[in-house]
Specification:
This protein is an all-alpha fold. It is built from 14 helices and four strands.
């Protein structure tokens, strides 16, 4: 076995010209990525000063625990959004999952655990069907999942005979609602754990990096050897599975399944995801930004209702938040793209100047 030793080039006049130092670009702090957190803090202070019912233990517990289903649904929706696809079927998948739990447990006498497992698997199958159609036939996922959503709503009313099914095993409610940690329902902590898991996958795993790369440019990702179709397929499967998990939590929270309730979750989930993309990591769909955005909206609607606003203020708040979030996301993403292009130009110019200086010294 031969070992090759590389000796450093000797110093002094006989040595060649030194390699140019790498270009150092100015680190951008981007304080605007914390803007929503600051506004959220201001909103909390305002409502705390205007009503003494806002910062009570009961109200805080209610705000955090009552939105678990929506938070889990939004976290599932993040995954296809990260890859650049829309999944409009998540709310209907949630409804199918909750209805399956009720039908199997109440009408057919299944145990609550097998019923929940079947419901979650059904969500994975729905996601797989969406993904297969999108990838195999190269159809816009917006159209595919919109059609799937309508189809699932019809199936949902057929399964339930357009009636609410109640009487789900109380064990499910005990597992997701009745137990508390720090006076907050345990299902909230389940959602926090899921948020942490998705954050880890997004930021520290190859799959998460592939999601981001495909979302930025499918053609470029394909040229770099990434299986774009497979990545998009898995993203939609994950979305359907997590949406079904949200349906199981909804069934445990309400103790019943209502065929009319699921669609009300779709708009708030999109609002939280898009508003979250303006927070912490600008221009990127990220779980902690979604968490902050969702509870910012919940804080605003709860405070207004405590001050006497009508219930419809929630729809107004979610609708306005979605419109503003989409606009901000677009503006911030374009500005970030311009920054990257400017940094690339500066790096290229600096490298060219360094090369010119090096050649000049070499000729001298």
């Amino acid at each position: 076995m031969t070992t090759t030793t590389t000796r450093p080039a000797p110093a002094g006049p006989q040595a060649g010209p030194a390699a140019p130092e790498p270009v150092k670009l100015k680190t951008r702090r981007e304080p605007e990525r914390f803007a929503l957190i600051g506004v959220w803090a201001i909103v909390i202070v305002v409502f705390a000063l205007t009503t003494d019912r806002f910062l009570t233990t009961g109200n805080i517990s209610s705000m955090l625990g009552s939105q678990t289903v929506l938070l889990v649904l939004a976290l599932g929706l993040l995954i296809p959004l990260r890859v650049g696809d829309y999944d409009l079927s998540v709310a209907s998948t949630l409804g199918i999952s909750a209805m399956l739990v009720a039908l199997l447990n109440v009408n057919h006498g299944w145990g609550i655990v097998p019923a929940c497992i079947v419901a979650i698997l059904a969500g994975a199958v729905i996601g797989a069907i969406n993904g297969a159609i999108v990838v195999r036939f190269e159809i816009d996922p917006f159209i595919v999942t919109l059609g799937m959503s309508t189809l699932l709503q019809g199936v949902l009313f057929w399964m339930s005979d357009s009636a609410t099914i109640s009487g789900i095993d109380p064990g499910l409610s005990d597992a997701v609602l009745q137990s508390t940690v720090a006076s907050i329902p345990v299902d909230f902590w389940y959602a926090v754990v899921l948020c942490a898991v998705i954050w880890y996958v997004f930021d520290f795993t190859p799959f998460g990096q592939r999601l981001l790369f495909v979302g930025q440019s499918k053609d470029m990702a394909r040229l770099n050897g990434i299986a774009v179709g497979r990545t998009r397929f898995l993203a939609l499967v994950a979305s359907g599975t997590i949406a079904a998990l949200a349906g199981v939590i909804l069934a445990g929270t309400t103790g019943s399944a209502d065929p009319n309730s699921s669609q009300s979750f779709l708009l708030p989930a999109f609002a939280a995801c898009f508003l979250g993309s303006t927070t912490l990591k600008i221009g990127r769909f990220n779980p902690w930004g979604t968490f902050i955005a969702l509870y910012f909206i919940v804080t605003g609607t709860t405070g207004l209702q405590l001050l006497g606003a009508q219930n419809y203020v929630q729809q107004l708040f979610y609708g306005a938040a979605l419109i503003i979030a989409v606009i901000l996301s677009k503006i911030l993403r374009q500005r970030n793209d311009r920054r990257l292009q400017n940094d690339a130009r500066q790096a290229a110019l600096a490298a060219a100047v360094a090369d010119a200086n090096t050649n000049t010294k070499g000729n001298a």
